[in-house]
Design brief:
Number of helices: 15
Strand content: 5-15%
Oligomer: single chain
Largest sheet: 6 strands, parallel
Length: 567
Amino acid sequence: MAGGAREVLTLQLGHFAGFVGAHWWNQQDAALGRATSAKESLGELCPDVLYRTGQTLHGQETYTPRLILMDLKGSLNSLKEEGGLYWDKQLDAAIAWHGKLSTHKEEVYPKNPHLQDLLSAEGVRSSDDIWRVKSIPNGKALPAVTTAATPKPLERSVRVWSDFLRVHLHPRSICVIQKYNHDGETGRLEAFGQGESVLKEPRYLEELEDRLHFYVEECDYLQGFQILCDLHDGFSGVGAKAAELLQDEYSGRGIITWGLLPGSHNLGEPQKNIYRLLNTAFGLVHLTAYSSFVCPLSLGGSLGLRPQPPVNFPYLHYDATLPFHCSAILATALDTVTVPYRLRSSPVSMVHLADMLSFSGKKVVTAGAIIPFPLVPGQCLPDALVQLGGATPWTPLSACGNPSGTRCFAQSVVLRGIDRACHTSQLNPGTPLPSPLHACTTGEEVLAQYLHQQQPKVTSSSHLLLTPCRVAPPYPYLFSSFSQQGMVLDGPPRGAAVQSIPVFGALCSSSSLHQALGGLATELTKLDLRRWASFLDAGVEQDDVEELLQELHSLAQCYQEGDSLMD
């Protein structure tokens, strides 16, 4: 692998995971297409960590995500299971058999016309409907995207994640679970036990193992796996069995799981809500057993049954009922907090990151982010950080309640997209310093000093990057008063849409998990499971529920405030 990259294999399990993953890969693609800028170091993040090189049947070089995704029948719409990159119309027509043929055609879903408009503007589809790979100048970089804001019709027309995925996938990436339906009232993957049983079937287990071996065997320095997994439905069981398989077959590699939950739920659907609670609890406990750490990601306010208002971002206008919006925000946070193990220079391995955050059994961590990080033109980083104030400036993204007043045991922090000229104070000599941050001589020192001021006894790892987060179309237009480069404006933006933003993100081992996990166990204790026998019929025993409660309580105990490396 070029440059000795520490490769990561990504698993996307579930439909909301597909939404987050589509935005994630679109952002990686936009970063690849960024032209060289004097203000930005393109070498900070190593794309080879996530991508692999290959060749099409036409001999053209490809650069595709190192990805395995699983979803249900009917979830792909127009996207072919084998992808579109390696398909050859002429070879497809060359059939060896010359006898009588009968043709059976499935319903063809129309391609999303609004995404097609975006793609056709870049010239990636030819008149004979064959995907033509864009030329790859300078190794990996693709032409920069200059499209205006995501059109509102795209937002209204998105039904599935493939409607807005603009990235080519390898034929070994997509695995469809045919026995369950994405749409309809029957044949749904609703319960944890159903998900576990999927990977107990030889057909799906062997298919996953074959794909794992294909990707892993071509890696030179595999550091581990990141799993994007739906927690609210049966994919929590699929994720648990997948993580168990990874731990058994690839012991010593990092396994970082991002447990995904859609932002809102409806009180008028009691069975869905009870199943969501049970699936989330079973998923967290089982994934924790087999992962280096697990981080729930959601814009909801709570993991429990009682709905809480979705989280608020001061500089974003989003619709919490739209998966297209919620998944974009979570993907942006994910693109930021995963920076440490994707760095080109001095990366923090997945295993080391997990060791720092998950000591003493604390294998669930929380995430938070400021999206976008508010920097006014002409303002320096010390000024902006002083204005933030507060020990927990981030908007919480793990549905574990308000983190204010809670204790952080360890944290990994990333601030990205800040121009080097803004890193330190430029006050004239002799001017009184507004804060100790203004005395720092480097941006890295400013950030480290800020974190020490906020949480003086906390083990902190911090990274400051010039590279911003890409929000090029089809990323939704969520920004109120920001320039094209993500700077705060006094009034409405003029001209081109926002293309990139600074983001401040953090992973934290937090005492808020004591109440969140304990509250989850308390709610489960109050359930009369005899009313939800269908959940048990799907493959979970009553004894499993009792064991689950014990595990949740034990996990919650790890986050009592007296338990810290510093005590």
